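Hi C.,

You asked whether I'd gotten around to modeling the 254-residue construct. I have! Everything is below, sequence then structure, no commentary in between.
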Amino acid sequence: MRTRRIQEIEQYILEHQTVTLDQICEEFHISMSTLRRDLGDLLQNNSIHKIYGGVTTQQPPRRELIPFGERHIVNPDSKRRIAVRAAALVHDGDVIFVDSGTTTLYLADALAEKQDITVLTNNLAFICRAMDFESMRIISLSGTLNRKTYSFTGPATARVLENYNVSKAFLATTGFSSRNGVTNSSPSESDAKRAAVSRSETVCLLADHSKFGSASLVTFCGFGDIDILVTDQTPPQELVSTLTGAGVRILLAD
């Protein structure tokens, strides 16, 4: 009986791609303790991966915070093209928020020709990159320096951001999926992300194709909070349907 149940659960996961542990318990009328015993057998299937609160057949989430220097060298051309496409959304005189992250870092060069823009940011690498661009007014958000992310994080960062009216926010993500929304691997960074979402007229998510369908530790907003996704490839159809159903406009980098 147990062997058959595990096979049925495995098929259920493969069909639905990402499911929570609670969903499995409800679907198969088993207790959480029973499911936890079954997980050892289920995870022997290399197509199934454990995520926070569930399992998925999607790309495994980044459970650990990868240092900025290592992330910076992943997909640099895609990130640069995404930044250029995103910068086209900025108008002279705008007040924008630039999130921590490697994709948002490339916005510094892409915004160099803009006039009279104000940038609120906790992204230390962005600040250093934009130092020579005198037409860009930079307001650094306070907080605790996170050396792995090259950013200022924590409740203080969010409190300062909440004092400003923002035209457009440019957010980074560790991954996003239909099941988990827009996620991040660092809880300390998520306060600033949430504050940016609440204070911005337009919220733009910048993410390359490696972020499609993956989930990380903290969900900091849902698709209903995002106005525009700027990416380098068209997401899978199921994800496109979820995004467009929530009113998200998808822009592809050239």
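If it helps when you're writing up: The first strand starts at residue 18 and ends at 20.

Thanks,
B.
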